[in-house]
Each structure stands twice: as C-alpha cells, then as structure tokens.
Specification:
Helices cover 26% and strands 34% of the residues. By secondary structure, the protein is an alpha+beta fold. A nine-stranded mixed β-sheet has the order 7-8-6-5-4-3-2-1-9, sandwiched between helices. Helix 1 (25-32) crosses helix 3 (49-65). The model is unreliable at 196-211 (pLDDT under 50).
Length: 211
Amino acid sequence: MTTTFPDVSISTERLVLRPFEEADIPAYTEMMNDEMVTAWTPVPHPFTTADAKEWVRRIAPAKRTEGRGIALAVTEFLTQRLVGTVHLQNTNWRTLATEAAYVTAPWARGEGYATESVLAVAQWLFRDQKFERLELRTAADNTASQQVAQKIGCISEGVLRNAWIARTQMNDGRWADIRTDLIVWSLLPEDLEGVSDQSAEPGYASFTDWN
C-alpha cells in the first residue's frame, strides 16, 4: 500500500504549488511573522530565519518522506513570488483521509489565492491520489479561513469545543494564549461537483517525481 505522496508540483491558472526551496527562506520568514499567522497558528513567535531554515530543510520534506502528508510552497506563476503555503497533515493511508492547513502572505490576501491553492490540492488529492476525505479545522473566530472552506465546497460537520490555543496581542504588544473552539469541515470527492467556476475551478497539472 502506498504510504507517501509523490514529489509533486501542481499548477493552476495563476499559481504553482511546489516543494520548498532555499530561496524561499527570506519570504517565508517574513510571512510567518505576520500578526494573523501568529494569532491563528502555533508557529514560534518571533519566527526567525533559523525557524524558516528548519522548515525548508527538514520539517517540510519529512512530512512527505515519513508519510505524514506533504508541504507545498504556493507561488505566483508569473513572478514566482511566495504567496502562501498549503500542507496536508495527519494523513491516514487506510481510510484515505487527510487534513489541510494553509497560510497566505499578508500582501497577497484578498486575491483568492488561498481558495485557488486549496482547491487545486483537493482536486489533485481526489483525482490523482484517489483519497476519499479532506478535512479542515478552523478556529471559531478565524472567518477568513472559514470563507476558504466554504468557497471550495466544504461541509461544516460540527464544533470541537475548547480544542485549540490561539493567541491575542495585548496592549503592551505581548502575545497571550487563549483557548478557542475549532470548526470541523470536510470535503468529499462528490462535493467538488458543486463548486462553481466563480469559486476558482482551476485547471491543474501534476508532475510526479518533480525536481
């Protein structure tokens, strides 16, 4: 039974999703220090160049080679600029189910990049990899992330109460942990049939054994 995703690149009309490269380190460091990223993800703060190097050189590649998922850098097709990330995690190879997480750079928000990239990964996951379930988990107050889930056709399944630790910035600039609920969303292969062209139904091409 296959227990790892292929080394892959996924292309849409505007984006290329590919493995992380050394050249991504400066832009990735900047992106992961954004206030929204700090608030809703468990990444270290401040996020240092050393943290970015650890992600690019060890953590991201290991997600795939160890069978836990796959981490992809999201770049603009024309400029090759890093606009975000999408990664699959907590992959179950027996049930063919996995969980998607995503981050968009602050300067790239409002362009539909998160929707386009997550949808492209879902299409690849279901059509090429024959998976049966994609799950998203969004913090209760993270409306931007919830909109992405809705736009790609996800169904809200319920709430995991008090299940996540987010962060809020205090008046003195310090960050404090706060507990929050998680909304669980799911996407099945048949759900993609209801996604309209306006929701970014991109063509995609995947290239296995990508170098």
